[in-house]
Specification:
Length: 367
């Protein structure tokens, strides 16, 4: 013990660093660094494991202003209020091809059937208000209800395919009307409908759909006009218009089908006169498009049409000039048939993995 004490005394007397020296000489000591807060991990797309892929291939998605997400599959309609428990909607066990939700939370669902012998298509539109217990049919349409959208004036638009390929009709229903009315002289298959922030309604169509030739047109109707006119700069040979979206700057993006699991992606700025092909990095038919609340544009594709269906997911942020593949997305997740983004910025992706029978649901939450 004496030996230990003498060694400690010698250390202190020789002026070498000691416990007491550190305690008494605050000016020379370095401040203890504060712990660095953890850096949040990058938000990524993750499969929602509670979704049963046997519920069917996901054909459509919609989210309202609340928490409920609606999922349309070839086997019926489902919903979830928490993203954990998914419920089959009573009385809606048909092929749900399209979905849209009004600002008053009225849900519209479009159904589909295809006669494989002659290619004829049928379907119905159903609606459910917040006070309804069940969905009720809205009459007045004919054909598969391929796409639904609601205008800024609460007019509901329904686009149909009456014969598989390039024949169809367009319908409207005013906010105080109880049935749909056919738009006169419309004959093209309506593949996609969207509404811009200024109330302009865009319609994408198929004018030719066969094994070798795929063509489509693009129309618009502003709030100051009563009829649809062709969008300037669009070329019918660009392909069947399968997906549409407009970003916060007014740039319109158009995804097309040009063949089996082939397609293109085009864009046209608000003040530009023509569409530009931006599909250099895109693989597959561009079947879905969406814009996040941060301005990121997402594009989903089909890359195979076989029984083992695959697809890719791309994105373009406000800081990038072109689309790039989402790094964590695996092509075997399935063909991306539907994209939707909720009010909090969560991105939902619905896929098809086995045609008609199976599909998966993914989400990416905003950090």
């Amino acid at each position: 013990m004496k030996k230990i004490l003498s060694i400690l005394g010698a250390i202190i007397l020789t002026g070498t660093t000691s416990i007491s020296a550190i305690a008494c000489n605050n000016n020379d000591s370095k401040p203890i660094p504060k712990p660095t807060p953890p850096i949040p991990s990058e938000s990524k797309f993750n499969e929602i494991s509670n979704w049963n892929k046997a519920n069917g291939a996901i054909q459509s998605l919609a989210v309202g202003f609340g928490k409920t997400i609606w999922i349309g599959t070839k086997k019926g309609l489902y919903n979830s209020n928490d993203g954990i428990t998914f419920n089959a909607v009573a009385g809606m066990r048909e092929w749900i091809k399209s979905l849209t939700i009004a600002s008053n939370e009225t849900v519209y669902a479009g159904t589909a059937t295809i006669n494989e012998l002659d290619g004829s298509c049928e379907g119905k539109v159903y609606q459910k208000t917040v006070s309804d217990n069940d969905f009720k049919e809205v009459k007045g349409t004919s054909g598969m209800i391929k796409t639904l959208v609601i205008g800024t004036d609460r007019t509901v638009y329904a686009g149909t395919v009456t014969v598989w390929g390039d024949e169809g009709k367009l319908y409207t229903k005013g906010k105080d009307e109880t049935e749909f009315t056919e738009v006169p002289k419309w004959t093209e298959a309506v593949r996609k409908l969207i509404v811009a922030a200024d109330g302009t309604v865009y319609v994408g169509t198929a004018t030719v759909w066969n094994n070798n030739i795929f063509k489509g047109k693009l129309y618009q109707k502003t709030t100051n006009t009563t009829s649809f006119t062709a969008v300037s700069g669009w070329n019918e040979t660009n392909g069947v218009v399968e997906s549409l979206v407009i970003d916060k700057n007014g740039t319109i993006y158009v995804g097309t089908v040009t063949g089996e699991a082939r397609g293109k992606l085009y864009q046209k700025g608000k003040d530009e006169s023509k569409f530009t092909d931006i599909s250099q990095n895109i693989n597959g038919s561009v079947t879905s498009l969406a814009v996040g609340i941060d301005g990121t544009v997402y594009a989903g594709t089909w890359t195979t049409w076989s029984n083992n269906i695959k697809g890719k997911l791309y994105q373009k942020t406000t800081n990038t000039a072109s689309f790039t593949a989402v790094s964590e997305w695996n092509e075997t997740n399935g063909a991306v048939e539907s994209l939707v983004i909720d009010k909090n910025g969560t991105v939902y992706v619905g896929t098809v993995t086995v045609w008609g029978d199976q599909g998966k649901l993914y989400q990416k939450e905003k950090l």
